[in-house]
Amino acid sequence: MQKTDYPLWARDTIRYGDTDKQGHVNNAVFSTFLETGRVQFLMNSGRPIRAPGTNFVLARLVLDYKAEMLWPGEAAIGTRVKSVGRSSFVLEQIVMQGDTVTAVAETVMVMVDETTRKSCPLPEASVAALKALQV
Questions:
Q1: Which residue, among 73, 80, 109, has the nearest Cα to 94 in the 3D structure?
Q2: What is the C-alpha separation between 28 and 43, in angstroms, rounded?
Q3: How many helices (DSSP H) and strands (DSSP E) are in the chain?
Q4: CA–CA distance, 27 with 20 (Å, rounded to integer)
Q5: Are 32 and 25 in contact (CB under 8 A)?
Q6: What is the average pLDDT value for the chain, to the nearest integer?
Q7: In whole angstroms, what is the distance from residue 73 CA to residue 82 CA?
Q8: CA-CA distance, 65 to 95, in Å (whole number)?
Q9: 14 or 47, which is more confident?
Q10: Domains of the chain from N-terminus onward
Q11: What is the model's pTM?
């Protein structure tokens, strides 16, 4: 697991309020860091991933903690595509503080129709953009 394995990166500030009684970043905050990476990937990557009239929902999150994070500092979130399905795709993400990997995660994202609120197939342009970022 190296930084170069992840084509997209986002950053987030570790806030004093993110820490718990033990003095390290609370486990729940890691989900927020992962969300920062996903939003950067989905909304600001410059690729046409979301089709008009659709949105994405998080269907699954598996998160493994590897090391503690401490305040003050910055979280770096790396994101890559693991696989692409008919209406969903799997992202792999890492959270780092400096050169230390503090967490690894896998998320399943599903495209849904904004009107029906049901899953819908990924358009060809979305599939192409996702596959371009696949490991």
A1: 80
A2: 23
A3: 2, 5
A4: 9
A5: no
A6: 93
A7: 29
A8: 9
A9: 14
A10: 3-131 (3.10.129.10)
A11: 0.92
CA distances from 117 to 26, 34, 44 (A): 32, 24, 23
Place of tokens 């994405």: 56
Listing DSSP states for 20-38 in one string gives -TTSBB-HHHHHHHHHHHH
Q: What are the backbone angles phi and psi of residue 133, rounded to the nearest 5°?
A: -110, 10
pLDDT tens digits, 70-90 = 999 999 999 999 999 999 999
CA-wise closest residue to 51 among 135, 115, 132 = 115
Nearest to 24 by CA among 85, 133, 97, 127: 97
Residue with tokens 């503080």: 97
129 closest CA partner among 43, 14, 22, 21: 43
pLDDT interval class at 45 (50, 70, 90):
low
Whose tokens are 């953009």? That residue is 129
